[in-house]
Amino acid sequence: MHDFSITQDQSPDILYGDLISAARALTDDEPDAIANMANISALIWQYIPDLNWAGFYRVVDDELVLGPFQGKSACIRIAMGKGVCGAAAATNRVQRVADVHAFPGHIACDADSRSELIVPVCKNGKVIAVLDLDSPLPDRFSLADEKGMTDLIAAIANNLG
Ligand code: SME
Prior knowledge:
Blueprint: H1 12-27, H2 33-47, E1 53-60, E2 63-71, E3 77-79, H3 83-91, E4 95-97, E5 115-123, E6 126-135, H4 143-156
Antiparallel strand pairs: 1-2, 1-6, 2-3, 4-5, 5-6
Helix pairs in contact: 1-2, 1-4
The structure holds methionine sulfoxide.
Methionine sulfoxide is lined by residues 53, 74-75, 78, 83-86, 106-107, 109, 113, 116, 132, 134.
């Protein structure tokens, strides 16, 4: 239904620029947060290489609950502050982890995961969810990925909660 012309072998600026335009087009007229998280997970899964998991955890009653995602089935509930996702949500700071085995308290939903990028989703100054990207490659996520994903989430956060 949607056909975006996004080429993966481009500079991060162009790739993330295209991805953000596509994310806006998918979510701009849609207020349903779950539908939007589902489409954004699928978009990232399709266009960002070397991922084994891409999706969202939502903050519900001060804990993280599994939301829409692509990849293997995953842990359903994560306490605030626990694991990489819980750390991102509790501190409202991006977590870019080059080696998950070196992260104290990392929660191994998929034993294949070697590196992770977690971006908090904020609305009205509150963390309402996190975007969780996992890779089977060590040190998969660059500073450009962190910036690109942070910009993407900021562009569409109003329609994610
Ligand atoms: N590894 C994450 C848990 C979520 S799964 O990887 C999908 C963490 O430590 O928070």
